[in-house]
Amino acid sequence: MQRLMIWRHAKAVQWSPERNDFSRALQPVGTQHAQWVAEWLLQNLAAPEQILCSPSQRTREPLAPLLSLCPPLAAVTRFIPQLYLAPGDILESCLDAAFAESGSVMIVGHNPGLERLVREVIHQRHYDEYQGLPTGTLAVIDFTLDWPEIRGRGQLSHLIRGKNLSVD
Asked: Does 57 fall in a domain?
């Protein structure tokens, strides 16, 4: 079985024409949600074997709690410039290379590319539960076929939104 984890960056500061989009930081609430998602992931799933991340500030920041909680993940994390606001073909190309080496891959990035990627790889029976990929959401997709043959066949095993988690 292979696993794809798709994590959209958490809530960032509002875009403005005076601010560089690439350098937008997370809002404090986004930082908290990212922490909760990281904790949930490590408590409930095996850590990914490989992480691909857009190098923008708002994608690096949510990844920081995960790398802090599990330092060995830093060695398998790659920041790929092409993932910044990447369209589907770029996302798939990066995943082709990653799944050639690993059975479990996380990708951290942006919409609309990630949202479309989830819709393309999950089986249509999951469409009702998958209503999109809001900020701070982790989609976990399992599949028994090898990565590029999974289109439309993936099992959406988890859809975790940081906003809905809390530490008790």
From this structure: yes
Is 17 domain-assigned? no
Report yes or no on whether pTM surpasses 0.90: yes
**Counted domains in the chain:** 1
Instruction: Summarize pLDDT for 121-162 with one digit per residue, the tens.
Output: 999 999 999 989 999 999 999 998 888 787 889 999 999 998
Nearest C-alpha neighbor of 6 from the set 96, 165, 121, 90: 121
CATH number at residue 43: 3.40.50.1240
Distance, CA of 144 to CA of 122 (rounded, Å): 12
Helix residue spans in 14-87 (DSSP H)? 28-44, 57-69
Query: In which residue are the tokens 């930082």 written?
Result: 31
CA distance 110 to 6: 10
Q: How many CA atoms lie within 13 A of 157 on its CB side?
A: 15
Q: From CA 7, how far away is CA 110, in angstroms rounded? A: 8
Any residues with CB less than 8 A from the CB of 141 and at least 6 apart, and which? Answer: 3, 4, 5, 6, 118, 121, 122, 150, 154, 155, 156, 157
- What's the Rg (C-alpha) of the chain? 15
Domain span including residue 115: 2-12+22-164
